Model the fold of this input.
Amino acid sequence: MKKLLTKWHRILAPRATILVSTVNREGVSNAAPFSFVMPVSIDPPLIAFASVEARHTLKNIRATGEFVVNIPSVDLLRETWICGKSFPEGVSEIEQAGLTAVPSEKVRSPRIKECLANLECLLEAEYQAGDHWIVVGRIAAIGVREGLFDGEAFDLVTAQPLMHVSSKDFASLGEVMTYTE
Done:
C-alpha cells in the first residue's frame, strides 16, 4: 500500500501533455513538457500546471512573468521527449528538438509553430504544493491550428493531442463519446 502512495498520480492517466515555452532574461527560448496541468477558471481565463523547483521553465517564468502553453500532437512525441531532457541553462530545447519558435502576440515567450494550439499566458500566481509549485497563468492570447476548433468544440479526434500515461508511456485518443438519454 505504501508503494502505491508514490504512484497514485498514474491512476489519473492519461493526462494532457503540454510544452511550456519561456525565455530567460537574455531572450534564449526554453521549452519543457508537463502533464500535471488543468484549466482553473473560464472568466478570467486561467490555466495551471505543476513544476518542480529545479526546472529552467519555472526560473524563467519567475524572471519574466510570462509563458506559453503549447499543445503537441502525438506526431510530436519525439520532439516533446527531447524538450524534456536536461540541457544546460541557455540552450534552447526548442532548437535542440528541431521545433520552430515563432513570435507570440502578447508575450515575449515564443509559441511553438508545430503545436496544435498555443495559449499565451501572464503569470497570475504561484503556490508551493508539496514537492511541486503550481503556476497559474492568465491567458492573454490563443492560437489554434486551422480546422481544429469549430467555435464550440476542439476536434480531439482529428487533433490527436499527446496524452501522458506514465514514465515513457504515452497515448492518443481513439474516439469521443457523447452521452445521450
Observations:
- The chain has five helices and twelve strands.
